[in-house]
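Colleagues,

Please find the record for the two-part complex below.
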Amino acid sequence: MSLPRENPGTTRDHVTSGTSPLRQAWGRLRRKKIAMATLSIIVVIYAIGVFAKPVSTHSYSRTDLSRTQEGPSADHIFGTDRLGRDIFTRVVWGIQTTVILTVIAVGTGGIVLGVTLGLVAGYFGGKTDALIMRFGEVVAAFPSILLVILIAATLRPRIVGWTRDFEDWSNFPDWSPVGGLVESGFVDYFVVTIALLPFAWFGMMRLVRGQVLGIRNADYIEAARAIGVSTPRLLFSHILPNVTGTIIVTASFSMGAIAGSELILSFLGIGVQPPRPSLGFMISDVSGRGSAVVSVMQNHPEQLLAPIIVIWLLIFAWSLFGDALNDVFNPRTR
Amino acid sequence: MLAYIVRRLLWTPVLLLAVSAIVFALGHYGPGDPVEIQLGQHYTEEQADRLRESRGLNDPIYEQYGRYVWNAIQGDFGESFKFQGRDVAELLGPKLKVSAQLFLAASVITIGLGVPLGFYTALKQGTWLDPAIVSGSLALNAMPVFLTAPFLIMFFAIKLEWIPVAGWGGFFDTRIILPALTIGLPGVAVFTRIMRSSTLDVLGEDYVRTARAKGVHEFVVNYRHVARIALIPILTLVGFSLSGLLGGALIVELIYGVPGVGRFTLDSLFARDFPVIMAVSLIGAASLVIANLVVDILYSVVDPRIRYQ
């Protein structure tokens, strides 16, 4: 899919033979204004999440009951919430939660699990393929977010319990650099990732499988097999590079989808737990689980708009960026 | 073709069985003791034993599961933990009716807006309208319901005072409009995008050029030669979008106070009322699977070139 496109009409075409397909794709991407604009939005938001500590101006959990529900001011640029916490700081740390979860869920579920299973299913076919596909169909039979909610709600107490047992048994908090697994919020991220996994892998698997089906009988694969290239090597160094385009495009689309699911999970109170801020929990906390959404919007719009607009921008940017990537990698589907 | 349908029909119960097994296991090993949910914090061991005995909770899990499946096939989803003495089927019935009406209204909005928009943008390819409509619908698609809902309410219910803010009055009540818009609008982008690209594909076909060359009127070319064929890929989306609608309904029903399945599911989830959750998952999965099956069959009827192996 990522073969160089002949484009003799333009003199600005940097594509020359000898550059890798990925570099060529990047060259084409760089000339798209929308792609560059959305990419900068994504980079800025992710940078804010990564550098949450230096960016934030206050402590995300310190309450100040003398300064509750304040409007935006020089000290609190998005104002304060009903416990006097700085909203800007909480949004910044909430972004960090979203950043961590989207990267981990898409990385493990989409890229590691989805790609590997897709390669295996497409290459081996037959029973292996049927097994993976049927399993995926079961997962896909659940109405979208319901399975994610179910897993998060039922598994979380179990996993927290096991982790506490493990901590008691090993005295983990005493010698670990990050403190207790439960206290540091590690378990929360783990639970949410597990819940998002079934949601994250199937789409990627199906697309990669489809691509592999198309190339597994290509001459160069046949040739590689004939000279005795081992199967894992065949899969990962001969087939994988030819499905990179699909992987990148799908991963970009699923980043937005995962961010949206995480928002709903934490809105329902089964995502990352307080005191650690998450954008969904902020929205739910401010709006009384959604029932007071209108009165908040009328009285303290900044409290609701700050987290919502960030997540909206992020999801929107990912989907526009995914679109641009799709144009670059699959020029025929334009 | 027939063999394909038969195979799919045979696979459907297996699929549903797997779905029910997953939910049953999650409910069984998940938190919350059904005894505590029903009797509250204070109960004697004797009461608990009697309850466990009467509900068969002492039996091995495979027996409990087997009994559940057997009853579910006969339409009996058991008794709710939270609402004692009430059958899940009886509790869910009216809520399903409400949500089904809401889905229908939302689908009308999604498809009714998305398909014409996609067709129109394809015809306008190359003008500023094309990217404007595509990115506009994507912006709506990315918008969280927490933003769509208050904006719609503030505009239509409070500023214009056209529609009451919240509540439910059935399909022909104006109060269905805002929740249906909130659920339906995000999906518009999906239909716009697919309809646009499929229309572009058809516009490039030889027979369309031939029709134009013959001097067939532009209107007839667009609607008879292009639109009818371009609509085919939309069919597959209908089944797929049902899943998204179900997800959207969860939160939207909460915000608008619609007494539907979504809100009931969330309440049951937090009350650990697993018989209800099981039933919702099964009904949701069954309707999804059947919708997709119907779509697949329709697909081959509409487009005779498609033959399933």
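The radius of gyration of chain B is 24 Å.

Comments are welcome before we finalize the supplementary table.
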